[in-house]
Amino acid sequence: MTSEQKGLDIQITEDFVKQELARLGPDASHDWWHVYRVRNLAKSLARQEGLTGKSVHLVEVAALLHDVQDWKYSHSENASRASVQAFLEAQGVSREQKDQILNIIAGVGFKDELGSKGKGETSPELACVQDADRLDAVGAIGIARCFTYGGYFKRVLHDPAVAPRSGLTKQQYTDKSVQQTTINHFHEKLLKLKDMMKTGAGRRMAEHRHDVMEQFLDEFHREWDAEA
């Protein structure tokens, strides 16, 4: 039986992802447990959206591989595709399956939608993986990840004199020479994600998680201003 017929082995894929994460050394905001949560969320969304069989398997594999050699830590836009492509070819997957996985991974990122007027139709599988990744960036876990990431990159917690940027382009968002605050990251990205969900199930889950972040920010600013 070929890899295409039986699907890419999940355990082999997990082992590869863990190995890549160990080499890259990301902080806890983008570690194995982030990948684990995204995989589980993506599978749940896929089933709620009516996906079955090979589509659910494709969603699971792409979710597992979505952060391999993440550009924020590898400092390379091409490292992720190169690493995942080499892995898939070594596993003997068909060209069709390889292209499907690579296309999902390439389309997941928030940065790639900045300034976009619409990039055409989103496949159901991409929608599930993308929404799952974004759901893990919002709510209580999103808050925890945001401060973990900010601490790792030595971002200032909050500075009232530094206003959040609006209308960010991909180039501005990825420019690490501009040091933004952790609180501003909520306004520049996280609070926007609710309205960027592609699946009905993702939108329903995002509503609650969005409210959690808004309540947190309200309390944060009240305490910052000595009002609470």
TrEMBL record:
One family name in Pfam for this protein: HD
InterPro entries, per the entry: HD/PDEase_dom, HD_domain
Ranges where the HD/PDEase domain occurs: 27-147
Protein name per UniProt: G13251 protein
Designated gene of the protein: g13251
